Amino acid sequence: MKVAHNFNAGPCVLPRQAVEKAIEALKDFKGTGMSVIEVSHRCKEWDEVMDECRGLWKELLNIPDTHEVLFLGGGASLEFLLVAMNFLENKAGYLETGVWAKKALKEAKALGNAYAVASSADTTFNYIPKGYEIPTDLDYFHITTNNTIYGTEIKYDIDCPVPLIADMSSDIMSRPVDVSKYTLIYGGAQKNVGPAGVTFAIVKKDALGKVSRYIPTMLDYRTHIDGKSMFNTPPVFSIFVMNETLKWVKEMGGLEAIQKINEEKAAMLYAEIDRNPYFVGTAAKEDRSIMNVCFVMAPGYEALQDEFMTFAKERGMVGIKGHRSVGGFRASIYNACPVESVKALIACMQEFEESKK
User: Fold this and answer.
1) pTM over 0.90
2) Within 10 Å of residue 304's Cβ, how many Cβ atoms?
3) Out of 46, 139, 155, 167, which one is annotated catalytic?
4) Residue 191 known to be catalytic
5) Domain covering 254-355 in this structure, CATH number
6) What's 110's DSSP letter?
7) Half-sphere exposure of 27 toward its Cβ, with a 13 Å CA cutoff?
8) Catalytic residue among 21, 191, 265, 321
9) CATH assignment, 16-251
10) For the segment 83-130, what is each residue's pLDDT rounded down to a tens digit?
């Protein structure tokens, strides 16, 4: 079997045991004689999966009873609209830290008064804004905790004087989170918690129903709370794999253990980028993402970019090409990316350096 070191930004590497369990379930789901993609989402076997998956979310993140966990469709891009639809009445503020934050703000602007409280667009989003004040008259303040394209991350739970909403698509389950500080946490699953096709939302129940606008049935979080995430047929296969992925997270020791591993992987790779004369990191050091490590060829070596890309691919590195909007390189080292892959990339960078001497 071909060895691939998977650094794709999403869909991304998943725990091998989750993939193997998915293969088994595709053939025969819980002894039903049917595939997991064939069974009714109303059967007791599927109810067990939904309950277990919801329970794992609550256990791993220590989610209080004030919040409900939802499994939805449409990806984080649809959530950009749902956020404003459910929470924007008078005015909303956004922290503009990258492309996805800008897209979230765009959807809110289409529904009402929304604006960027602070932005790092002045230097192509290579840092997290600091020293800004959050107005106390906002309906909510929206942040994107990890910026996959630019490699910056808010690695702590900020103190916020108004309801706090966070897109955690690419760093959820990578560290402990104080969910009580948030009115809503949402994101696509396809980074740390499963395959594409299911979106998670952790919503504070008593914050809903406060806007005066009509909310279409499918865009109302209350619909999905009442329907236990099964108002319509849920993305069953994606949820099944998510459940198996969360089992793996628990077996690894939970989020404290996962955080330690993630920090160690990132420290190793950033150390090599800082040491190797052929590469340079693009994000401000204090804001470097633990999930997405972005770097370019060092000044004077820009012409070697394509050569290194080919060099790396020949050694099994997959998905390290930077986002098309910024170029360079990006190694996404989400939860399930093994330390062996990070070491292999480091060895590849060192070998490239040696080849140029």
Assistant:
1) yes
2) 16
3) 167
4) yes
5) 3.90.1150.10
6) T
7) 5
8) 191
9) 3.40.640.10
10) 999 999 999 999 999 999 999 999 999 999 999 999 999 999 999 999
CA distance 82 to 216: 10
Separation between Cα atoms, residue 169 and residue 186, nearest integer Å: 7
Q: Which helix (H) or strand (E) holds 220?
A: none
Q: How many CB atoms lie within 10 A of CB 26?
A: 14
Name residue, tokens 């060099």: 311
How far is Cα 312 from Cα 135, in angstroms, rounded to an integer? 47
CB count in 10 Å sphere of residue 154: 19
**In terms of DSSP bridges, do strands 5-6 and 317-318 run parallel, antiparallel, or are they unpaired?**
parallel
| Catalytic member of 100, 139, 265, 287 | 100
pLDDT in tens, 285-334: 999 999 999 999 999 999 999 999 999 999 999 999 999 889 999 999 99
Q: Are 344 and 316 in contact (CB under 8 A)?
A: yes
pLDDT at residue 324, as a whole number: 87
Which burial class, exposed, middle or buried, applies to 27 when counting CB atoms under 10 A from its CB (0-12, 13-18, 19+)? exposed
Mean pLDDT score, 9-22: 96
Question: CA-CA distance, 194 to 207, in Å (whole number)?
Answer: 28
The label of the residue with tokens 């804004």 reads: 129
- Render pLDDT for 173-202 as a digit per residue (tens, 0 to 9): 999 999 999 999 999 999 999 999 999 999
**Known active-site residue 274:** no
Could you tell me the residue ranges of all domains in the chain?
Answer: 16-251, 254-355
